[in-house]
Amino acid sequence: xxxxxKLFGPKWRKCKERGDQYFDGGEWGRARAEFNEALRGxxxxxxxxxxxxxxxxxxxxxxxxxxxxxxxAEADRFEExxxxxxxxxxxxxxxxFVHDDKTxxxxxxRIGAIEAGLGEPEHKGLAKQAGPPPxxxxxxxxxxxxxxxxALLGVMDEDRADIYEALGADFRRGFMALMDGDLEAxxxxxxxxxxxxxxxxxxxxxxxRLRLAQDDFVKSEELFxxxxxxxxxxxxxxxxxxxxxxxxxxxxxxxxxxxQAFEVDDQDINNFLLAGQxxxxxxxxxxxxxxxxxxxxxxxxxxxxxxLLGKLHMAAENAVGAQEAFESALGLRWVxxxxxxxxxxxxxxxxxAAGLYLQTRTNMARAEELYRSLLATGxxxxxxxxxxxxxxxxxxxxxxxxxxxxxxxxxSMLEEDAEQRKIVEKLLADL
Length: 431
Known about the structure:
Strand order of the largest sheet: 1-2
Order of helices and strands: HHHHHHHHHHHHHHHHHEEHHHHH
Shape: globular
Strand content: under 5%
Number of helices: 22
Largest sheet: 2 strands, antiparallel
């Protein structure tokens, strides 16, 4: 599909790549900033780019959900601890990440209840506070930083978490600055700590992540390589090293590090994903297919692996294999949520599969179903593309009447001088 050839501006690819790195590392705030910047600067030059836009939006939705959950949990903790104003602040922040009316209403109701109780002797265990909520104090900020740091340690392996905790308060501040995207503050703390402890592989790793965030692929690669020499079985180090090598387009060395990661753990799902992504970037599509298929044997319910398999087949111009892979991904999650009234599915796989059905002029009924499902997600930014795709499927099925309505709606959402509108108008003229 040729819709959205030029939407915004340049430099979006690098933002998406950084966002993907932060996403894979669970750095939700930084991932959100990069994905939003990618969308602001998005420019499509091929149908594959349009797919990337859908991917960005899907990942951004996941990031928002993670941040929403995080702030709601923090609100619970502060409310239980009698810190009403802090609970209210987290709830107000949470509103930024809410995308459904029910959750928004519940959150607003909770904010109102908490703030109404600030002047009462008791409100659900909250301590009485006179006057407006106090401004943030250094103590509150330090306490939040400690709690966030502790939460991040909880998702690391035990040995690494113990090392990070033992590095002390200065390291924690630098680490959290890096997680928050404050690269200057992170550098001011982490680089001196590395100078003081050069044989610590995790200090090299964190400064390497800092350099990677600064797009300094040469220095980051050197730091990750040195860290891997000190801790050769640390998969997070090897995985970041691979990404630094991507930045240098050094596919041969990236493949060698992938092999090293498999020697550490030949069943780790991230090894299969990074191996497949390396092959997709380097053009070794057949090797990528073989690796990812092996990954699916070990992780048979991984939507990410099936989607990646589809992309590899697509790049190799194997439309049938790609369609099968995308449909497998969709088969793993195609569930109607009665509480929200939403169909839950992998939107990227749906968009890729629907586009392939259109291109190959096969299974138009399924293409229409997928585009209608994508329209039901409420993705307003991509709605014209979904409408136009559904219309093309309808036309192929002989339903020009409904196709015309969809095309008219698509045209109305596009700028008059936009190239994609001209494409839609040509489709209308040909009816």
